[in-house]
Specification:
The protein has a single domain (about 1-170, about 185-375), classed as Growth Hormone, Chain: A (Up-down Bundle), CATH 1.20.1250. It starts with a helix and ends with a helix. The chain is globular, with a radius of gyration of 20 Å. It has helices at about 1-15, 15-25, 30-40, 45-55, 60-75, 80-95, 100-110, 110-140, 150-170, 180-185, 185-195, 200-230, 235-265, 265-285, 290-320, 325-350, 355-375. It is built from 17 helices and no strands.
């Protein structure tokens, strides 16, 4: 519930971000940098929060993240210039590890047989937050006929305050760990992270995840601009598109991920998802009508819904119980690097080469991930 409410806040502000930045005169490349800044902060914060949660407990780590996210939404709502949007995105990225902490908690209490399914439900909760969020954000931004991008940010900040109070009351307190402060130091953290990467297949899975996430975020960072270019959409029309995408992704997470992984195995479903993503990205620039656009995005969305939780589940299995927090934190940092680079090169290619370039580039990157994975990931 806390993760769901937290991501409703993200859903409120994220669809508005490209249009908000455009109102301050930002170019597609600058918009890509703005979107990528969150991911740049995610290079370090999830791994640190994941490891820290192993010592201070999931509850306290989650509360701190919710508080930081709420402050970033407040700054977003009060922004009067482009640099304030950059500051809000940086703070949001620095405290945006709630999903990692929740994944670690789920990994603590599930068995290998049902872990992928439970992680799929978690991602579905995140996606459902993104479904409801755009509805609220669009209504607030367009209230009274005038565009007001600040109101959704303030509403998201209030929602974060409610989420913090709910988590503080509802989440059970954990027993103290007297030895945690003596164990927590930077050298030990780095040693543990290197140890994680030395485990068989962990590094290879993270390479595949990097390529898939970079291609996906290049699409996400530019799709609002592409829809504006192709169909003349504004933030309201794009919000409806986000709602469709979120509903489809949630349905795929809930209905497909668990059954398919049980029937065909996680490795096979991982690569099936990658194929779907690549095909959707390849077709997207040829979408000259709304049905074609929705069809291409359906491939991308369902492919991501299959590949992401199965990759995470495989990492959990390979990491072992005692290393799950560190492994998932490091995986999220890898995803942050991929998202940062994807947003940057996606925005640059959109502006410098053409509106279709980010999607064809992403399809080629997915193809490379499939070729690499087929050669390297065996026997998992």
């Amino acid at each position: 519930m806390s993760v769901w409410l937290d991501h409703i806040g993200f859903g409120i502000v994220i669809p508005l971000l490209p249009f908000y930045a455009e109102s301050f005169g930002a170019s597609p490349t600058v918009i890509g940098m703005l979107i990528g800044l969150y991911s740049l902060m995610q290079l370090f914060s999830p791994a640190l929060w994941g490891s820290l949660s192993d010592y201070i407990g999931r509850r306290l780590a989650l509360l701190l993240n919710i508080a930081g996210t709420g402050l970033s939404f407040l700054l977003f709502g009060l922004a009067q210039s482009l640099w304030m949007l950059f500051a809000a995105r940086a703070l949001s990225g620095a405290t945006g590890a709630s999903i990692v902490i929740a994944q670690s908690y789920i990994a603590d209490i599930t068995t290998p047989e049902n872990r992928a399914s439970r992680l799929g439900f978690l991602e579905a909760a995140v996606i459902l937050g993104f479904i409801l969020g755009p509805v609220v954000g669009s209504a607030l931004a367009g209230r009274g006929g005038a565009v007001n991008f600040g109101s959704p940010g303030l509403a998201a900040a209030l929602l974060s305050l409610f989420t913090f109070c709910l988590a503080f009351i509802a989440l059970p307190k954990q027993k103290s760990r007297p030895s945690r402060l003596t164990k927590w130091n930077t050298q030990a953290l780095l040693t543990n992270l290197v140890g994680v990467l030395q485990r068989p297949m962990v590094g290879q899975l993270m390479v595949v995840a990097f390529c898939a996430m970079s291609a996906l975020v290049a699409c996400q960072a530019t799709i609002a601009l592409w829809c504006e270019y192709r169909f003349g959409w504004g933030f309201k029309e794009f919000s409806y598109f986000i709602i469709f995408s979120g509903l489809l992704s949630a349905c795929a997470q809930i209905a497909l991920t668990g059954p398919l992984t049980r029937w065909f195995g996680e490795v096979n479903i991982l690569f099936a998802g990658l194929v779907g993503m690549g095909l959707g990205l390849l077709l997207l620039p040829f979408s000259t009508s709304l049905p074609l656009l929705l069809g291409a995005m359906a491939f991308v969305i369902c492919g991501q819904a299959l590949s992401s939780p199965t990759n995470t589940s495989l990492l959990c299995q390979l990491a072992g119980v005692k290393q799950q927090g560190k492994t998932l934190g490091l995986a999220q940092s890898v995803a942050g690097l991929a998202s940062f680079t994807g947003a940057i090169w996606g925005g640059f290619m959109f502006e410098a080469i053409g509106p279709g370039a980010p999607y064809w580039g992403g399809a080629l990157l997915i193809l490379g991930a499939i070729a690499f994975g087929k050669r390297q990931i065996t026997g998992v």
